[in-house]
Design goal:
Blueprint: E1 7-12, H1 19-22, H2 28-35, H3 72-80, E2 85-90, H4 103-122, E3 129-134, H5 140-150, E4 156-160, H6 176-185, E5 189-192, H7 214-219, H8 222-234, H9 237-240, E6 246-249, H10 256-265, H11 267-273, H12 281-288, E7 289-292, H13 302-312, E8 319-320, H14 333-339, H15 345-356
Parallel strand pairs: 1-2, 2-3, 3-4, 4-5, 5-6, 6-7, 7-8
């Protein structure tokens, strides 16, 4: 192995064991409806059927029962302990609640899920477990209130936008109350591929519409995140909120050179339409944005990937390792080690995420589940 130091895993997915575990956190007015399955709140609610139920590694099903990602001990044994992980950022599951159209139910579910995550996961004795809080984007003012309600918890690491409920890119001014609250609490924003746009929602994952196959869905996932990033720059999010940071999760990395070159080449046109574009788009990107490594693209030759990433300059300072555990296309650390330059690995596995999340002090050596029991 080329790298033996500590790791921070910036994208891990956790889940509840069954509805009975989550129901106590749901307000009474919605609890019976959920119990009667009038509204689906588990993995089955993911509205693109070609992904529902088939996007997890079979070996990650806990021996005590429940879906992948629902058991701390299994996660410790399979991910944290063997890979020298100092911290993970737990981000629920892909597409969580993306198809919930009712804004009042969406708000109730988000509040319940945040409380469940803090109670069942972030209160564990294992201090490697950090998490995202969900922000209900249907109602940005309520989302800001939710951030202020729970965002001060010491193990909350970021604000996750779980759906694109208003059909506008996330840089649009309608979402700015969310960013004001996040900046106030010193929390970065995370946009996860597939979490904001799915069938039956107001935003689609691909420009062409609903995708009937897994291959189409998986291939074009970066498309919406590219739009969200461009909208952050066009609508002046980084100028309006000078301390806000943005993480793009599970969208790959090889598209970045093209988009940065394209935006910089069009900067005069961008400025003509928006007086908030006051610097080169690439400058905003390298100062305020990080990307997770998973899925790190498979080029025919390793040298081709490195040549492309080095062509833009500076990507070694914005990539953060992510396993995407427990999904079927998990990137194990040794895969990332084989694909990237050895000199990049301390930054990618540890230093970039530590800086991005504001964990400025040196983290303690990675513990084990025996040292930090669940």
């Amino acid at each position: 192995m080329a790298y033996t130091g500590p790791r921070i895993d910036a994208d891990v997915h956790h889940a509840w064991r069954d509805d009975a575990e989550l129901l106590p956190y749901i307000p009474t007015r919605w609890r019976q409806a959920v119990a009667d399955r009038q509204f689906a709140i588990g993995p089955a609610m993911m509205s693109y059927p070609h992904t529902a139920g088939v996007n997890k590694r079979l070996d990650t099903y806990p021996p005590i029962g429940g879906p992948p990602g629902s058991d701390v001990a299994t996660m410790q044994r399979q991910l944290l302990d063997p890979h020298n992980v100092s911290r993970v950022v737990l981000g629920f599951d892909v597409g969580l609640n993306a198809a919930v159209a009712n804004p009042y139910l969406a708000l109730a579910l988000v509040q319940a899920l945040n409380d469940w995550s803090i109670d069942r996961w972030l209160s564990q004795a294992d201090d490697r477990l950090y998490g995202a809080l969900l922000a209900p984007t249907h109602v940005p003012e309520e989302a800001a209130a939710e951030i202020r309600r729970v965002g001060g918890h010491p193990r909350i690491a970021q604000v996750l936008l779980p759906w694109n409920s208003l059909g506008r890119p996330f840089g649009h001014p309608v979402y700015h109350p969310i960013y004001a609250a996040a900046e106030e609490l010193g929390l970065p924003i995370a946009i996860h591929a597939g979490g904001g746009e799915v069938a039956m929602s107001t935003g689609q994952t691909a420009a062409g519409g609903v995708m009937p196959t897994r291959l189409e869905f998986h291939t074009v996932l970066p498309q919406t995140s590219q739009h969200h990033l461009l909208s952050f720059i066009t609508h002046g999010v980084f100028e309006r909120f000078p301390n806000l940071r943005l993480m793009l999760s599970e969208v790959g990395v090889t598209w970045v050179p093209w988009l940065l070159w394209s935006m910089d080449a069009s900067v005069d046109e961008l400025r003509r339409e928006s007086d908030w574009v006051r610097r080169l788009p690439s400058e905003y990107f390298f100062e305020r944005v990080c990307l997770t490594t998973q899925p790190l693209e498979e080029t025919p030759q390793r040298s081709q990937l490195i040549e492309l990433l080095e062509a833009v300059g500076g990507l070694e300072d914005v990539l953060c390792f992510a396993s995407d555990y427990p999904h079927w296309d998990t990137d194990e650390p040794n895969y990332v080690e084989r694909r990237l330059p050895e000199a990049w690995l301390p930054k990618v596995f540890y230093e970039n995420a530590r800086r991005f999340f504001g964990w400025d002090t040196e983290l303690p050596p990675a513990a084990t589940s025996a040292q930090a029991p669940a």
